[in-house]
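Bench log, entry 3. Co-assembly request; chain sequences pasted below exactly as received.
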Amino acid sequence: MAELETVILDRAGIGRALTRIAHEILERNKGTSGLALVGIRTGGDWLAEQLRTRIAEIEGEEIPLGEVDITMYRDDLGTRGSLPVGKTQIPFPLDERRIILVDDVLFTGRTIRAAMDALIDLGRPRNIQLAVLIDRGHRELPIRPDYVGRNVPTSREEKIAVEFDDQRQAIEVRLIKP
Amino acid sequence: MNILIKNGRVIDPAQGIDEVLDLLIQDGKIAKVGKGLQGEGEVIDATGKLVTAGLIDIHVHLRDPGQEYKEDIVTGTRAAAAGGFTSVACMPNTNPVNDNKAVTLYILNKAKEEGLVNVFPVGAITKGLKGESLSEMGELRDVGCLAVSDDGKPVASGELMRRAMEYSRPFGLTIIAHSEELSLVGEGVMNDGFVATELGLKGIPWVAEDAAIARDVMLAEYTGARLHVAHVSTKGAVEIVRQAKKRGVQVTCEATPHHFTLTDEAVRGYNTNAKMNPPLRSADDLAAVRAGLADGTIDSIATDHAPHHIDEKNVEFNIALNGVVGLETALPLTLRLVEEKVLPLADAIARLTVGPARALGIPRGTLEAGAPADVTVIDPELAWTVEPQKLQSKSKNTPFAGWPMKGAAVVTIVGGKVVWKK
Amino acid sequence: MTFRHKHILGTEQLSRDDIELILDTADSFKEINAREIKKVPTLRGKTIINLFYEASTRTRTSFEIAGKRLSADTVNITASSSSVVKGETLEDTAKNIEAMKPDIIVMRHAASGAPHYLAERLDCSVINAGDGAHEHPSQALLDLLTIREKKGRLEGLTVAIVGDITHSRVARSNLYAMKKMGMTVRLVGPGTMMPPGIERLGAEVYTDMREALRDADVVMMLRIQLERQGKTMLPTLREYARFYGLNLENLKLAKPDAIVLHPGPMNRGVEISSYVADGAQSVILDQVENGVAIRMALLYLVAGGESKEA
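Structure output for the full assembly:
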């Protein structure tokens, strides 16, 4: 069956969305004090890096950056099998931080649940906020993003693909219809 | 009761016969072999079949008395008949051990009353197979033992083996030697070599067999006793017997179908049905055993039919008991040797008939007029597959499960009576 | 890349890709062992039975900790406390344990092939924690993880394995795994302890320890057990130490940055001198630490089965 692909965000569009999210984060948190970014591997970690650059451009200050791998916290070992386990690297204490958790696509919310469990195992953040590039709906858990690049209404069967170049820069978001 | 077997290819190596002939049985004896014979009674059409003297297995374990859960004289002789064997020699490692008249008579009586084929009990060399003192071989001979053996165990003491040979000789008993040097066997559970190294199993080196056979052959040479070496499995053992025969030593020997068919590769996967003693050896040894069969160094094919209950095999490899059943697969595996051009058909039949008959000193294994009418009719083309559950033996421990076979006994006649028909 | 093995019976069954996946997975799990809360919920609800027919505090504890850190329920059954002593067959013991529905059985047994026996008869996964003189895959994998960490690579390294090769499951598992990773494996030990045909598995067999050590990147010493290996194998431990013991002097024959491994428990002063065991080149305690991570990786990969990622 032929798949139908539509580009819903290009490089420029992604850039504008990330810049806006960076501003919103700073505005909501009144600056960078106590802020840290944690990206969910893989995709979210690279977006978090881009967000950090933008925040540094605006505020002139690099905030701490970490990455979390949620494989160990998944709830679908039985149905999806043993996926490769990546590394969690958070080179700063989480305690009392405001954590901006970053992911590329927000879907059921289960990944975010797993990521929050992972973070809480590592310390006690002051709060956790969620930034996503795409929110495609279909939540299965009471989870809501604080910062959204774009809301994309989708059907369950459709897929969203976020493409990165080899500099780990997001360059394109595509909607794939089955 | 007469039986006329018509138009079969009669092969009798003892008389040098190999042609399409008829065979007439009268009053339990071979009456005549010839062309266009007539007779009253049952007629068996053997067109396309082989007609041979009844096969003889000089080495089986009937497990009776004492281990009837593995096999008994009824099921063991039925397995023999199904495999084309009309005579079997059963080893004394029963419980109680066949080291006395009572056990020998029990075996003979039960075989006579309930068995399907002739049973020749082998008495023990030493009391209780303990390797300490000689059994009453004279009396054993008197009640019907033709040979003595401590099979399953070697006679460890050289001195005792010497005395056994010296003592048995005047009684005309054959000594069947299970030769292995136990201190070299140690805790070994399979052939010592690359496969054992890979599987992490302790090995039994070939020298454990060769050294012991060399001793026993030399003792036979020294004492003049008649020696039959059981289950030779190594290149060296074949060579030792070959040289001894050249020197005129009274020695015969046997090889088993598993040793001329399988190598220690069969143990892979920790297959306990490939565990036996002596163990399956290397490809070199297998080739030497085949060469020994071909040149007559090895004069008998014997099964070492060793039934074991599934519970004794369905365990870790190192504690599984040694041995495999063989009565029902020996004939097709021997015919396979012929097909692989290891030896001619007549020689193959000789290894199953006149060879063991001479080793035991019995007037069988031939279709000579006047001989007991033990006859096997073989369909050499009959194709079948080994299904352990369908074996007549009580035990199913065969390493050949699932193997395609060609050839089978279709009629087995013992003393002029048809005991098995396929 | 996906992991297709239901059981881990030996390194012989593993491909180079499998081994790399296991090492990478272990590397990721290692981070947990440094945390304050050393536990993740990965195997929550899974039951792991450690079925140990041979005493082995070290391996059993390592598997137990690995299972617990992944939130699995772990139960230990040892020969002394199980019905083994009552003469129950391995099959009956196994069937009884299986009726309790474990997901994984980790088995140590003195009989080579015992885990294979179990794997053929049970539905759950079986991990071999050492069978007779056959294999000890988790030990070899933790050795490789340790070597890779210290050396930054495996390919092209030369390893000298010294001791009783005949009775060593550690040597066999390492030999299989190291050959697959492109390493050179030298074996050396007394003539009574070198099994026939081992060179056919790709090993270089040496008779002189000094030659085997020359320019080696890794030296792996095996435990010698005179009481177990029989009085006929060696004259004395003193003589063994003289010809096959590792000390500061003969270690100099290896590369200056060579590392020293020992699967433990060590006989100090016999196969390894304390100066070496506690010296700068020793990575013996790293091996123990990596053991937990490797076992976490094995439990995880076996528990989830083949990845069904689209």
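Chain B touches chain C at residues 192-194, 196-203, 269-270, 311, 314-319 (CB under 8 Å). The first strand of chain B starts at residue 3 and ends at 12.
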